[in-house]
Amino acid sequence: MPRLAISPEFLRGLGALTRPVRQDVAVAMRRFLLNASAAPHPEKVRNSRDPRVATLRLADRHRGVVVRQDDVYWLLTVLPDAEAWSYAQRYRFGVNTAIGIVETWDAEALERIEPALRRASASGGRPLFENWCDADLLNIGVDAHLLPLLRLMTSESHLAAVEPLLPYSQYAPLAALARGDSLAAAWRELDACRSRAADEIDPEDLLAALRRSPDRAVFVADAAELERVLTLPGWCTFLYPPQHTYANWPAYEQPVLITGGAGTGKTVIALHRAALLARAATGPVLLVTFSQSLATELSARLDMIIDDEVVRKRVEVGNVDRLAHRIVAEAEGRAPALVSSDDLSELWQEAAAGRFGSAFLLREWEQVILAQDLRTLEEYQAARRPGRGVRLDPEARTLVWEAVQHVVRRLRESGRRTLLQLASEAAGLLGRAVGDLLGDEAPGREPYRHIVVDEAQDLHPAQWRLLRAAVPVAPNDLFIVGDPHQRMFDTRVALTDLGIPARHFRLKISHRLPAEILSWGVRLRGGGPADGLVAGNAAMYGYRALDNGLRPMVRGYVDAEAEIAGLVSTVAEWLEEGVPTAQIAVAARTSDLVRTARTALREAGITVKVTSLHGMKGLEFRRVAVIGVADGIVPAPDALTPADEDPTARAHDLQRERGLLYVACTRAGEVLYVSYSGRASPFIPA
């Protein structure tokens, strides 16, 4: 019986076909797996650059391209007949001799580029790789066929010209050497391209290489597995090497923090890590995120990964607020009452003295007093106030403390609390040593053995104390993913300051964003360092995309009516191009703009997701339109602290608004459309 391995490129090609053709391809693949009489049979390719390449007729005028070794067929793509034959002739396939993963080479294009490189080298210049002998290059996995081309290169631009033609596992270490880095640095780049270590590497054993390359192939043994692979999104099946490594590492001896920019796959890692821990059956798992809407999305995505009902029940998915609410409710025997934002605002207005405004007092309470769990005036007098720009002498701190206590008293009298108060109280309930929480003597506690945290950058210190208290200190206790640059709220705390000494790993490659959207987004965000999660500042240096695409479309309109008309026209064009409605989103900063856009699109017969910038958090789409990015709307004036009240807080507010826009814009994996009427927001890159 033949065995089948499927590449992610095949699934992308299959998705681009019409529905009848897709159905015919699926039927043909099932027949092939079963070795049925009507199954497609391999056909040799003339003039192929790899003798193992063949084609399979999978539908009318459509062929799959496969690489065959023994009874295993690696299905690479499905294309119309002529394109399939051309593809089959163009590429060759090999095994990286240093790390044992499979590599795909655009052999035809490399042959065409050689004369140009030879002419360039004849004009003089020092050879780019003159400091490294052939043995050095072969030792870092460079393919022997590539060595003659490398010896022709005299500048980094020559290497950049062939980058699209090389496997990334070839280009990455060579780029390090071209920058002047050491062989050790080149090895680090290469090491990031593998998911697991290889004891012995046979350059001819393509099957073993495929098993070491979870981002390039998934094996299907029967029709049920085939159906699952064909119907699930690619992220359920294919993980890039760092994603696979971090998600599937057997045991971490201490908490783990993984940071990375938009599109690097942090949420995918969190989901697969939760699934791995659930399958291990070592105890209950909590997958937690910032908001309930994100928790609902994570739960649905986890259902796709875990098809075993028993395993799935081992993972609870929720947000920190619900966790705190449940702990307090169980301890008190009734559901706690929450104060509304309007009522809370009135209380702070009531407490505000002439020297301090209500917004200042609220931030001081949340960012200093609740953040550090300060219980007395003496503790507050001695506390540091990181991130707060206005210095307070002892007399001023006394005034602030009295104002805060007034609000706390009024809340207590009315029997109401804020969500952060609930988190703080829940942490206190679980604050004793939690090693016994897995036992029967602690009914009503949260007996989690593992906690996986997504969108960690927006959690408040009180919420972190709750999570730390909800899981025993043990291997695989806390697994955390986040990005300080995507922070939507002013929570700036290093995990080490909260008693969570996390081992830090950083993702550098965005697999969702094309380079054009990524670079535009980085300029929009400011590109500078951001604090939070890790000690010091986290920089965006080294964050990059591997694919190219379209530059963001920035459109200015004379008035709001024209801007909405432009939005409707643009989304209609996307739908005419065949983009599914579920892959289109529209976002705006204000609720009025959201309602206006939704109404206009609905009147045009268009139903796509329309939400606030906050509502885009954690989601991804092929095409995104962000409207109303005008001066006076973005940044939102009422979200900014007056400069004369606290200049540092205002600077943080501006960065938070930048981050909010950055998050919404980087949800687009294919096309980003940004519009404004009147004067553009100062955040839009020039």
Question: Can you characterise this structure?
Answer:
Its EC number is 5.6.2.4. This is DNA 3'-5' helicase. It holds the Pfam family UvrD_C. Keywords: ATP-binding, Helicase, Hydrolase, Isomerase, Nucleotide-binding. 42% of the residues lie in helices and 17% in strands. It is an alpha/beta fold and 686 residues long. The strands form seven sheets. A six-stranded mixed beta sheet has the order 2-3-4-5-1-8. Strands 11-10-14-15-9-16 form a six-stranded parallel beta sheet. A five-stranded parallel beta sheet has the order 21-25-24-22-23, with helices on one face.
Question: What key attributes describe this structure?
Answer:
about 675 residues, 6-stranded mixed sheet, 6-stranded parallel sheet, globular
